[in-house]
Amino acid sequence: MATSQSDLDKQALHDEFQALLEASAGYDQPQRGEIRNAEILQIDEREIIVDLGAKYDGIVPIADLERLDPEVRARLKVGDNVPVYVLNRDPNDNLTVSINMGMQQYDWEKARELLKTEDVVTVEVKGHNRGGILVQWNRLEGFIPSSHLISTTSSGSRDTWDDLISHKLTVKVIEVDQSRRRLIFSEREAQREQRALHKARLLAELKEGDVVQGKVTGLRDFGAFVNLGGADGLIHVSELAWHRVDHPRDVLRVGEDIEVYVLSLDRETNRIALSRKRLLPDPWESAGEKYHEGQLVEGTVTNVVDFGAFVALDDGLEGLLHLSEMGNGSLKEPHSYVKKGDRLSLRISHLEPEKRRVGFTQRWGTDAAGPIDASAEAPAAAEEVTGEIPADEVIAAETVVEEVNETAEAAEAVIETVVEEEAADEAAEAVIETVVEEAAADEAAAETVEDAPTTVIKLSDLKAAEEAATDDEKDS
């Protein structure tokens, strides 16, 4: 039966009226991908019917219900308001929605909030891929890149990651992109955040001058890091001991439990400065009573420089063994003579406790003026050694004295030889002078002999002249 024009006009009028009614009521047709609040109207074994405030009700299929946490699903009841995600519309104009994806929306919103507040959360490890760890947070799956993971060995092998499955990790949200369903966490940033919180709390409780227990966690050229229970403090290399410390490993090791003194607190930068040597006896306080100039001591070389070596005694008192005081004083450089860690027997050459200075020497048998009379020094040395050093060191000192005597005798022999050689040189010079004088006399005689023939010739000429004159007289 054909539809009359009047019926068509009535239908058009009805549709127009319905559109106006929906517009006046602010009605907005649900769109795919939209999140809406809905009221549960009916709960069946295979589905749940919800009211979206739309023209048609929404249906939550069994497949979506199975994705819900069993506890959450058991708490659902008629009249509850739940978030739903609009999936599509079936041929009967029924809307298919998802409660599970609707609840995820709340988690995305919470994740964005955590990204702003930088709060930490707990996630559960579900697996891993080549790039990192897969985790579950509420109803969302997240990811921890390997570069932001610290709950693993340095090798970062997959076998190590397998051991983390089902473990809880404390992480921090560093990226949220719901359109790409990308949720990135960082365990490293969370650890840093927690350490900062612990340090701030510790700084509020500590005060300068406190003595606390800690564990050495790291050694660097400039000092040692010590964990005080959730926060690290630094012992500068100059605060490790009273003597010179070239590197912290010389006095500490990682993992060692030590007591430290709180030097200073910087609450603005969250820095804690610590000291180890402040808890050790200051050797300079009793240096004037314990040591004196000329005393024989033993020490350990702590550093070697171009002009000598620094030596620390067993109680931490440190001084300089100058290059000119090493060995016999003729060394050109110290590095081939001593090295760091060597144990040396020394004598205190000068001591100034008020200036915290001490000098050492190894030149036991000589002074600045030259060789010392060993026979005169031996009794004094024996008195000094008595009661201060073992017998074997006394024998060693006597050996040194004997060597000094032998050296002095050798020096005297050399001097005598030099004197004899000088006398011989003087005699040789006298002989040379005599030879020179004789040579001069010979030269004078030679000159006289050379002149003699000339004089004879002149006399003969004179005689001839006289004879000629006589002959002339006779003729006349």
SSE diagram, text form:
Layout: H1 5-24, E1 35-43, E2 47-51, E3 58-61, H2 62-67, H3 70-75, E4 81-89, E5 95-98, H4 99-117, E6 120-128, E7 132-137, E8 140-145, H5 158-162, E9 168-177, E10 182-186, H6 187-205, E11 211-220, E12 223-227, E13 232-236, E14 257-266, E15 271-275, H7 287-290, E16 296-305, E17 308-313, E18 318-322, E19 343-352, E20 357-361, E21 366-367, E22 370-371, H8 374-385, H9 391-475
Helix pairs in contact: 8-9
Structure commentary:
With 476 residues, the protein is of the alpha+beta class. Among the domains are: 118-191, OB fold (Dihydrolipoamide Acetyltransferase, E2P); 206-279, Nucleic acid-binding proteins (OB fold (Dihydrolipoamide Acetyltransferase, E2P)); 283-363, OB fold (Dihydrolipoamide Acetyltransferase, E2P) (Beta Barrel); 382-446. The protein contains nine helices and 22 strands. It has helices spanning 5-24, 62-67, 70-75, 99-117, 158-162, 187-205, 287-290, 374-385, 391-475; strands at 35-43, 47-51, 58-61, 81-89, 95-98, 120-128, 132-137, 140-145, 168-177, 182-186, 211-220, 223-227, 232-236, 257-266, 271-275, 296-305, 308-313, 318-322, 343-352, 357-361, 366-367, 370-371. The strands form five sheets. It has a five-stranded mixed β-barrel. A five-stranded antiparallel β-sheet has the order 8-7-6-9-10. Strands 11-12-13-15-14 form a five-stranded mixed barrel. β2 (47-51) and β3 form a beta hairpin. α8 packs antiparallel against α9. The chain starts with a helix and ends with a helix. The model is unreliable at 366-398 and 444-459 (pLDDT under 50).
